[in-house]
Amino acid sequence: EPVTMNAFELISTSQGLNLNSLFEK
Amino acid sequence: MGCFSSKVKRQFPGHEDPVSLASQTAFTVSEVEALFELYKSISSSVIDDGLINKEEFQLAIFKNRKKENLFANRIFDLFDVKKKGVIDFSDFVRSLNVFHPNAPQEDKIDFSFKLYDLENTGFIERREVKQMLIALLCESEMKLADDTIELILDKTFREADVNQDGKIDLSEWINFVSKNPSLLKIMTLPYLRDITTTFPSFVFNSEVDEIAT
After folding, report:
1. Spatial separation of the C-alpha atoms in residues A4 and B178, rounded to whole Å
2. What is the pLDDT of residues B134-147, one digit of tens each?
3. Phi-psi category of B50—alpha, beta or left, where left has phi over 0 and alpha has psi -120 to 50?
4. What is the 3-state secondary structure (H, E, C) of B30-49?
5. Largest CA distance in chain B
6. Contact, B109 vs B184, CB < 8 A?
7. Calpha distance B186→B112 (Å, rounded)
8. How far is CA A20 from CA B62, B99, B153, B187, B195, in A?
């Protein structure tokens, strides 16, 4: 199966990088 | 008014005047004050000392203080501008400023480069990217064979590492994100436009005589 995503596309899905959650009460 | 301000400064080390912070960032004075409401809530969630420690930061992101996470740790370290092991209010505002929809694109690119340059060498190295991929897989409970991880790394470095020296420098990163703009999505928080609506109580705790808009 060909690899279509690059590593950073995958990494940027981390919940730890999702700062939106700082604003969710 | 003077008494109120000095009390705030005593309780919140590193608390800078909202007018001064607004003048140095994309935020208005009201937005800085609304951010202070958010800051107060995060900085008092575990230890009420007016500073955000790593545990409080993780708790704010995951709503679960036991969750150790490479990426949240990395963001914490970058927010900890003065390298004191804690985030004070001025660090908080200045760091979030990079995530403002109106912040310069170069600042977002620079921050994202530092984020992925785990060892602060000035390069994003293959082993760092592999470490982040493995951390992501642990976090998401997704499984990928080591061969597949290597294929993803090969593809990534083929595209990003133009001079093929095994590491991505800042100019290669600038070039790479310009071809893959979705990588910068995490660097913009639309919430920051509506911060005064999300935290309206700033109006009652304002330190300035007239709220500038």
Report:
1. 18
2. 999 998 888 899 99
3. left
4. HHHHHHHHHHHHHHCCCCCC
5. 64
6. yes
7. 9
8. 11, 10, 28, 10, 12
Q: How much helix, strand and coil, in percent to the nearest 5, is found in chain B?
A: 65, 5, 35
Q: How far is A17 from chain B (nearest CA, A)?
A: 6
Phi, psi of B143 (to 5 degrees): -120, 130
Q: What residues of chain B, 82 to 121, have a C-beta less than 8 Å from chain A?
A: 96, 99, 115-116
Contact A6 B156 (CB under 8 A): yes
CA distance B85 to chain A (A): 18
Q: Give B157: exposed, middle or buried? Use CB within 10 Å, 0-12, 13-18, 19+.
A: buried
Cβ-based contacts of A8 with chain B (< 8 Å): 116, 129, 156, 160, 176, 180, 183
Mean pLDDT of B10-14: 72
Residues of chain B with Cβ-Cβ distance to A9 below 8 Å are 180, 182-183
Backbone angles phi, psi at B124, to 5 degrees: -95, 110
Residues B158-194 pLDDT 10s? 999 999 999 999 999 999 999 999 999 999 999 999 8
Residue from the list B38, B152, B186 with its beta carbon closest to the beta carbon of A23: B38
Q: How far apart are CA A7 and CA B155, in angstroms?
A: 8
**Does pLDDT of B47 surpass 80?**
yes
Residues 6+ apart with CB under 8 A from B164: B157
pLDDT of residue B51: 96
